[in-house]
Design goal:
13 strands; binds zinc ion
């Protein structure tokens, strides 16, 4: 028997799982992300050895924050400052002697939701709303890429927003009025001085309005069939939050048909399931 390995390398935690060729997870491990690249790499290799055991590895897939060069597998995740120009693909293929694929975490999550979340839409947008915000767009199951492989950054669109505390709106990318600065976990902390789970109903309504305006733009540009939204803030806000945002989108969408908007069906496992999909022998790249 052989296994396929998925890695979800995030700014707060790193998860590793071994799966069979149908993508069923057999064993998993997780640890907190450190501030040291060497320590993180050692943890990743130890966890791979732990979940794989004595079995042959046929392929590996990884989700990590951008920016990165997905073809060469060189990564520089913005929120992990010690990880700069890390040739992750070359390092892992050398050590583990199997094909290794890596992509931006939101692209990978889109692949996971598409493959295991019951999506069959031709044009599918997945939006992650957690500490930060991003999206991955699939056309007929394949990742849409921009100029020179650039990843479209839907979190850094500017929107017409409503907030009582406008002076606290500040994006980590440096541009003004970014959607991510308004509705991500970090943005919510800056604006309201508390985490998303502590927001009042009125404050959730403001966040939903702003998400709805972002969805309106994304629906207008991509003319997607389906949009799924995952990540901790979306899961925390739940169906009411997503429904409120969808109403705002639908009210303002005049020329383009409204996509079907819903919460992710895979919860916190979307990127991990996508990483396993990258590892499996199917061409989705
Ligand atoms: Zn920004």
């Amino acid at each position: 028997m052989a296994v396929f390995v998925g890695l979800d390398i995030g700014g707060t935690k790193i998860m590793v799982a071994a799966a069979d060729r149908e993508g069923n997870i057999l064993r998993r491990a997780r640890t907190a992300t450190s501030t040291s690249l060497a320590e993180d790499l050692a943890n990743i290799n130890n966890m791979i050895a732990e979940v794989v055991g004595e079995v042959e590895i046929r392929g590996m897939g990884a989700a990590i924050g951008g920016p990165l060069d997905w073809e060469r597998g060189i990564v520089s995740p913005l929120h992990q400052p010690d990880w700069r120009n890390v040739p992750l693909k070359a390092m892992m293929e050398e050590k583990w002697r199997c094909p290794f694929y890596v992509d931006v975490d939101t692209n990978v999550a889109a692949v996971g939701e598409y493959r295991w979340g019951g999506v069959s839409a031709g044009r599918f947008l997945y939006v992650t709303l957690s500490t930060g915000m991003g999206g991955g767009f699939l056309v007929d199951g394949k990742i849409y890429r921009g100029q020179n492989g650039a990843h479209p950054e839907v979190g850094h669109q500017s929107i017409h927003f409503r907030y009582s505390n406008q002076s606290a709106v500040r994006c980590e990318c440096g541009a003004p009025d970014c959607l991510e600065a308004l509705i991500s976990g970090n943005g919510i902390r800056r604006i309201y001085g508390k985490p998303a789970e502590a927001l009042s109903a009125e404050e959730w309504a403001e966040v939903a309005y702003n998400l709805g305006q972002g969805l309106r733009n994304m629906a207008t540009f991509y003319a997607a069939d389906v949009i799924r939204i995952g990540g901790g803030v979306a899961v925390g806000g739940g169906e009411n939050f997503i429904n409120a945002a969808r109403q705002v989108m639908e009210e303002h969408l005049k020329l383009v048909p409204a996509p079907h908007v819903a919460l992710s069906r895979l919860g916190y496992d979307t990127a991990m399931r996508g990483a396993i999909a990258l590892a499996l022998p199917v061409d989705i790249h």
